[in-house]
Write a structure and sequence with these properties.
Jelly Rolls, Nucleotidyltransferase, domain 5, Barwin-like endoglucanases, globular, about 35% helix, 4 domains, 37 strands, nine-stranded mixed sheet, about 775 residues, alpha+beta, single chain, eight-stranded mixed sheet
Length: about 775
């Protein structure tokens, strides 16, 4: 043990660390030995540990496309490795291979973040190393290429294989009269025990479950959800090793855009949302309260069906009703099946070896309940379900979209009560209503094949409705990279998939019928691409696994909660707020067109971010509807021209500018820029800037954050409030500050010079 302490003394980053901190390093480090030629890290490995070489030397290598192995550098005794992932979340972009017998000590990210928070000398050392590396990367095209290739090569770019934090998780889905459960080990998802107990409240309930190949059914009396959970825990035994519980909760309203650790405030929110989910949220609450009693001390997480869709823009979720119904009652479109849509979108990105944030996807969850989701930049921008799961597609027993006046007509003519209308639309319509016999797609297909005209019409209506939504969402996305089918019908009905895709070749969707025929009964981790090889759009069949997604979200929420605890310790560290007015960044050739050949931008004043300046030059913005004049140009020039405006100004110009991070211009609208000597028409480049925080590497390490995190900021002042969805941007040249646009500042009565405090991490990619 003392030898390990001496070894750690050789690490350059730990020169000024106290004896107490050395003890923490020694107790939490995992020591691993390697022989010459052994791989210490492999290209594309997820960046989840920080390591130190305490004995021997190692080579940093890369294998070229032609198979040649190139030496990039070496690690000597006392060097750290894997520290870049603390800041960027990047995978390993090279191989590290032992050149001689080596010994390394590795620490998990959660420990190392907490450690450097109390060791400022280590933070400063790492910040200097990472700053130099990031600056070098700006000039090193080969290094940037290597990072991109490493991201594509990752076996598990989204961390489904959890190595840090809870691994064995009990997933609970409490229905009004049933309990579904799944025990998942995130280290080996093949080892699962799953089951179902129904009907709860009966003396003759059935408990059916499976573990591996073993399947059993037992009859028993189950009086309540608590009794059902007690039965599950008794079956698992004391050796179950449950480290956390993930609860499926149907409705989180506007309060939660991701999974969250359960506390008193969350329970109050779920209880309040009973008014919007009267059948589901009470049962979800019963499961939560039972687990808090039966598993005291075990962390519990709520994973909301509605959370993934909380990124929908306001124009997508707003009903054209008097605004007071939204403001007073929260009546808006929320969407459901979010856990499934998120899971299959992630799996599609893994299959395509692309970052989810680069893709435009349409995910079709087609089961007894059905919905379609448009996913752009990793976020839901629209979905077919609304205030309730009734809106949208034709489903097993739900009607989907209808004329709202039909409800009034039924009440007047059929003399139906509200409860009777509810039963009709939710339980007697859809495929069941159209066929008159069954809401099961399998039986409907069998009937259609035998010549049943009602069944044939039902299938046509069902597929046509999905096709309409696909077309609408291609328009909303401005293009498409992949169309994804999932859930019972989407995964197993080749005929339904074929009907939906028929006639969509003009959108780039063409399927290979032989591939489509084979894509039935896929294994849980299998993804089938049924598109023709020449199809511009991939068409994927992805088995959904909502339980696994809940387990993964549970582990991730607990990991982010650890970061939130660290942030709470930094509550005294304010972030300066700056109000960013509209402005334009120009590429060099556009400067010459707008202001004359050979013109150079003239500095008017320096900006807060080093190297950035406001120019003397201004341009007029000309849109389809109107103009915004004298918009300041900011320097220096950039590779692409970019216009940043407020929501108010986009209406004045007559364009719909998306909320985007700076530089993310693909698919954004264009307009005309008019200068003193000429005009330029850009095809794209107008955005409303996403609110964001600039941080240096030292700032990010100090807060325990990394590039592309989304955080929540609490702003002090006469009207205290919190801003969610604030993007963290890390760069060696940045100075700490939060930027919001003029609309946001005016609405919140904020001015430049005020401060905010980072409350929590909302999302980590």
């Amino acid at each position: 043990m003392d030898d390990q302490r001496d070894d750690l003394r050789t690490i350059k980053a730990f020169t000024d660390v106290t004896d107490q901190d050395f003890d923490a390093l020694r107790e939490n480090g995992r020591v691993v030995s390697y022989e010459p030629g052994d791989s210490i890290l492999t290209f594309g490995d997820p960046g989840r540990v920080v390591g130190a070489l305490v004995q021997g030397t190692a080579a940093v290598e890369r294998v070229l496309d032609d198979g040649e192995r190139v030496r990039l550098g070496s690690l000597e005794r006392g060097d750290l490795f894997g520290e870049m992932s603390l800041l960027t979340g990047e995978p390993t972009s090279a191989d590290i291979v032992a050149s001689e017998p080596c010994r390394v000590v590795c620490w998990t990210h959660s420990f190392f973040r907490a450690f450097i928070a109390r060791a400022p000398s280590v933070t400063l050392f790492l910040a200097q190393v990472l700053t130099n590396r990031l600056r070098a990367r700006q000039l090193d095209d080969d290094d940037q290429l290597r990072v991109r290739q490493a991201r594509r090569a990752q076996r598990d770019p989204y961390g489904f294989e959890v190595t840090d934090g809870p691994r064995r998780i009990l997933v609970l889905n409490c229905g009004s009269s049933s309990l579904k459960y799944d025990v998942i080990d995130l280290g080996d998802v093949s080892k699962r025990r799953r089951g179902m107990i129904e009907p709860i409240g009966s003396a003759e309930a059935v408990h059916s479950y499976s573990a591996g190949q073993e399947q059993k059914r037992e009859s028993t009396a189950v009086a309540s959800h608590a009794a059902a959970i007690r039965l599950v825990l008794a079956g698992l035994g004391k050796a179950s090793g449950i480290e956390a519980v993930g609860h499926r909760v149907v409705h989180g309203g506007e309060h939660y855009s991701g999974a969250a650790v359960i506390d008193a405030a969350l329970i109050d929110t779920v209880r309040d949302m009973v008014r919007l989910a009267p059948l589901h949220n009470p049962a979800n609450l019963a499961g939560i309260e039972a687990c808090r009693e039966l598993l005291p001390g075990v962390p519990q997480v709520a994973v909301f069906d509605t959370a993934f869709h909380q990124t929908m823009p306001q124009h997508a979720y707003t009903y054209a009703l008097p605004t007071r119904y939204y403001e007073e009652q929260g009546i808006r479109r929320y969407g459901f099946h979010g856990t499934s849509h998120h899971y299959v979108a992630l799996q599609a990105a893994v299959h395509m070896k692309r970052r989810l944030q680069e893709l435009k996807l349409i995910t079709c969850h087609l089961g007894n309940g059905a919905s379609v989701c448009a996913v752009e930049h990793g976020r839901s921008i629209d979905t077919s379900m609304g205030l309730t799961p009734l809106e949208g597609l034709v489903m097993g027993t739900r009607c989907g979209d209808i004329d709202p006046a039909l409800v009034i007509h039924l009440q007047r003519v059929e003399k139906l009560s509200p409860d009777e209308v509810d039963t009709l639309l939710n339980r007697k319509s859809g495929l069941l209503g159209l066929t008159g016999t069954s809401g099961d797609m399998r039986k409907t297909l069998e009937a259609a094949e035998s010549g049943d005209r009602r069944a044939q019409l039902a299938i046509q209506v069902y597929c046509y409705r999905v096709k309409k939504y696909v077309g609408a969402y291609v328009a909303a996305l401005g293009g498409l990279d992949a169309l994804v089918f999932t859930a019972g019908v989407g995964e197993n009905s080749r005929g339904v998939r074929a009907r939906i895709c028929q006639g969509l070749a003009y959108l780039g969707v063409s399927i290979d019928q032989r591939k489509n025929d084979r894509a039935v009964g896929l294994a849980p981790d299998q993804v089938a691409d049924i598109a023709e090889d020449s199809s511009p759009v991939r068409v994927l069949v992805v088995p959904t696994d909502e339980q696994r997604m809940i387990a993964w979200e549970t582990a991730r929420a607990l990991s982010l909660a650890d970061i939130d605890v660290a942030l709470a310790a930094r509550a005294h560290m304010p972030v300066p707020i700056e109000v960013s007015a509209h402005h334009v960044h120009l590429q060099p050739e556009h400067v010459h067109i707008l202001f004359g050949p050979g013109h150079e931008l003239t500095v008017r004043s320096e900006l807060s971010q080093p190297g950035q300046f406001a120019c003397q030059e201004t341009v007029d913005l000309v849109g389809p509807r109107g103009e915004v004049q004298k918009v300041r140009v900011l320097g220096p020039t950039r590779p692409e021209t970019q216009v940043e405006i407020s929501r108010t100004e986009e209406y004045k110009l007559g364009i719909d500018a998306p909320i985007r991070a700076s530089g993310d211009l693909k698919g954004s609208p264009g307009l005309v820029l008019r200068g003193s000597r000429g005009s330029v028409k850009i095809k794209e480049g107008a955005i409303c800037a996403m609110r964001h925080i600039h941080m240096s590497p030292e700032d990010a390490l100090t807060y325990g954050l990394r590039d592309r995190d989304f955080v929540r900021i609490k702003v002090a002042g006469e009207r205290p409030l919190s801003f969610g969805g604030v993007l963290v941007r890390v760069h060696p040249q940045y100075r700490l500050s939060m930027h919001i646009d003029t609309d946001e500042a005016n609405a919140a009565e904020l001015n430049t010079g005020m401060s905010g405090f980072i409350e929590a991490v909302e999302e980590r990619v």
